[in-house]
Automatic annotation (TrEMBL):
The lineage of its organism: Bacteria, Pseudomonadati, Pseudomonadota, Alphaproteobacteria, Rhodobacterales. It comes from the Bacteria. Keywords: Aminotransferase, Pyridoxal phosphate, Pyruvate, Transferase. It comes from Ruegeria atlantica. SUPFAM superfamilies: PLP-dependent transferases. The modification N6-(pyridoxal phosphate)lysine is found at K204. Its EC number is 2.6.1.37. This is 2-aminoethylphosphonate--pyruvate transaminase.
Length: 395
């Protein structure tokens, strides 16, 4: 069967594939789009900003009319901070659902902002469930907002945002979603999942280069956000109002990054939008995970929780396995992998997003196999402790 997605190009000679969830491997067309300079006030660039905003809103599907899109300079965390500061009023209180580094970062951001909050800390990877959210909200009427991470990139778990949303709105509270690593590949339709605002960035599933993020929020929330932000540069309301009035960003926009992103959005549409992109990433994951499991590697999560974004594997128990060595052997073969972020057992991560298809993933598996052979590791099975840890998820 021929793949349905447009042709995937090899990175240029000598460039490794980035099996990391952003920055990731981009197409040549995306890189080439940056070979020009734009005046930030010029009509041509204003048209690009308009196209960017409307194309992103189109990805919401039904119900998009109630929302608007506000791009924001900086990395993804800048947009998360902008969202939290702008939509949670100073007198509000947030419940942060944390099961990894990005949930913790949202909590830390609220700490910096001086916003009252509590954290449901599920450890390294256990999913926050709807019934837990319902209980906490019932016990604490002061909570106004719930903050959820869509795909927690530090483990790769796809969190159950649908049941979280149901519990949140059943209790009359509001939901804000960090969909940084999921948006563009996993549906987040307001007609299916209710939320007030969500954030993502240029260098994740849309496959652009790093330089800005974007907040997609209900227009009534954008109106109401006036005066909430602690920060001039991260004020979502101010950026939105200025952009609607002038067509321009308030401060110097990352012009080349926007140009690259427009190209990336076109490729995203040509691939079949969110469904097409998600299907390619899912095949990437399935081919890669099957090949790794055949060698004895085990995933942290069972299939129900695996995202098509990034997958955590336990390091093999074999003493001859040394992660730094494995990393460098993989890099020599053209693949940059990611260290793990689990606190209890050694692990590493392999991303499925970026300009890669299942053929590339077969080569990733082959490279892992050769790397193990070069280290003298005959079985990639993890230590018993890792499997005991994983059993917590099933319990
Ligand atoms: C990438 C990412 C972010 C933002 O990280 P930056 O390094 O600031 O771009 C936030 N949340 C999640 C879930 C992410 O994957």
């Amino acid at each position: 069967m021929t793949p349905s997605h447009p042709k995937i190009e090899q990175p240029r000679l000598g460039e490794p594939y980035l099996l990391t969830p952003g920055p990731l491997t981009t197409s040549y067309a995306v890189k080439e789009a940056m070979l020009k300079d734009w005046g930030s006030w010029d009509d041509d660039f204003r048209a690009m900003t308009r196209e960017l905003r409307s194309s992103l809103l189109d990805l919401l599907g039904d119900g998009a009319d109630a929302f608007d899109c506000v791009p924001m300079q900086g990395s993804g965390s800048f947009s998360v901070e902008a969202m939290l500061a702008s939509f949670i009023p100073p007198e509000g209180k947030a419940l942060v659902l944390a099961n990894g580094a990005y949930g913790q970062r949202s909590a830390q951001t609220l700490q910096y902002l001086g916003r009252d909050h509590i954290v449901l800390d599920k450890g390294d990877y256990l999913p926050p469930r709807g019934d837990e959210v319902a209980r906490i909200l019932a016990d604490d009427p002061a909570i106004t907002h719930v903050v959820a991470i869509h795909c927690e990139t530090s483990s790769g778990i796809l969190n159950p945002v649908e049941e979280i949303s149901e519990a949140t709105y059943a209790a009359g509270r509001k939901l804000l979603i960090d969909s940084m690593s999921a948006f563009g590949a996993i549906e987040l339709r307001p007609s299916d999942i209710r939320y007030e605002a969500m954030v993502s960035s240029a260098n994740k599933c849309i496959e652009g280069v790093p330089g800005f993020g974007f907040i997609v929020a209900r227009k009534n929330e954008l109106e109401a956000a006036k005066g909430n932000s602690h920060s001039l540069s991260l004020d979502v309301h101010a950026q939105w109002a200025h952009m609607n009035k002038t067509g321009q960003w308030r401060f110097t926009p990352p012009t080349h990054v926007v140009a690259a992103f427009i190209e990336a959005l076109r490729a995203h549409a040509a691939e079949g939008g969110v469904a097409g992109r998600g299907a390619r990433y899912t095949r990437n994951r399935d081919v890669m995970v099957a090949g790794m499991r055949e060698m004895g590697f085990e995933t942290l999560l069972d299939n129900r929780w695996l995202s098509p974004i990034i997958v955590t594997f336990f390091c093999p128990a074999d003493e001859k396995f040394v992660f730094d060595r494995f990393y460098n052997l993989m890099k020599d073969k053209g693949f940059i992998i990611y260290p793990g972020k689990l606190t209890v057992v050694d692990s590493f991560r392999v991303g499925c997003i970026g300009q890669m298809d299942e053929d590339v993933m077969r080569n990733v598996v082959r490279a892992a196999k050769e790397s193990l052979e070069e280290m003298g590791v005959t079985n990639a099975a993890p230590p018993l402790r890792a499997l005991e840890e994983r059993a917590k998820l099933a319990a």
